[in-house]
């Protein structure tokens, strides 16, 4: 993006009501994927001059231990309710978890959950990285997850949602097929990259449990009702052209004893409804690339021509 440019040019504008139709498998109207963020937060990480890791002076024992609850306790509650209702996770993984808590990674890998990269630690940021450093980060993520699980990651969510201007070009260059770092749509779409093909995978901030509980101060019941309203609307709109609902979660939040019950009611509602393709993010990206990517690119070109 040139200095002073208003539009970064990462994707084309396509009106929501005038697009090539997306048809999900088995006639489902909405693809639903659940994204547990399985993360590791360092107690006293190296200081990044662009952003503080903790709000309190280092070491922030309170912040660290609150998040550690997720790996120690909340994670298992979340696994239990997801498996009970047939939801396989698409894990936004701090890849250092493969060394710190390999039993967690092995557990969900055996259950058929997918992994994509959320950086190495959620306390180390991409801000200020040069290209060599960012390439090393991506290579580390690919290698570490492959060695620990046998999976080759397809997707990327930048650590703590931090980026450089080259991030999307680089992950596409390494063969990744989707990014969760653009929050601009309820359907997948093409991303402009220097080489390869990259899909923007709908990932939500609005119904992310971090925003629900820590920003919007929702009660567990309010959050559950919000997720159900989100689902019902997207399922209805998806009858015309398939939509995507992402439920991003953090076990230290949703896995608390007073929150997990209302959340399980959400999963029960979605599973019983019949309109959802309950799936994983990589499967959505694969389907979109195989069936819809080219039509979406044609849509964008057509609209650009008509708008002139």
Q: Cα distance, first to last residue?
A: 22 Å
- What composes the largest sheet? 5 strands, parallel
Helix content: 40-55%
| Radius of gyration, CA atoms, in whole angstroms | 19 Å
Per the principal axes of the C-alpha atoms, what is the gross shape?
A: globular
* Number of helices, where a helix is a run of at least 4 consecutive DSSP H or I residues: 11
Classify the secondary structure makeup into a structural class.
alpha/beta
Indicate the proportion of strand residues: 5-15%
- Average pLDDT works out at 91
> In terms of per-residue confidence, which ranges show pLDDT below 50 for 5 or more consecutive residues?
none
- What is the number of E strands? 9
Task: Give the helices and strands as they follow along the chain.
Answer: EHEHHEHEHEEEHHEHHEHH
Please specify the SSE layout and strand pairing:
Elements: E1 30-38, H1 61-84, E2 90-93, H2 97-100, H3 102-110, E3 114-117, H4 131-149, E4 155-156, H5 167-173, E5 178-179, E6 189-191, E7 198-200, H6 209-215, H7 220-237, E8 243-250, H8 251-254, H9 257-273, E9 276-278, H10 281-291, H11 293-307
Parallel strand pairs: 1-2, 1-8, 1-9, 2-3, 4-5, 5-7
Antiparallel strand pairs: 6-7
Helix pairs in contact: 1-9, 7-9
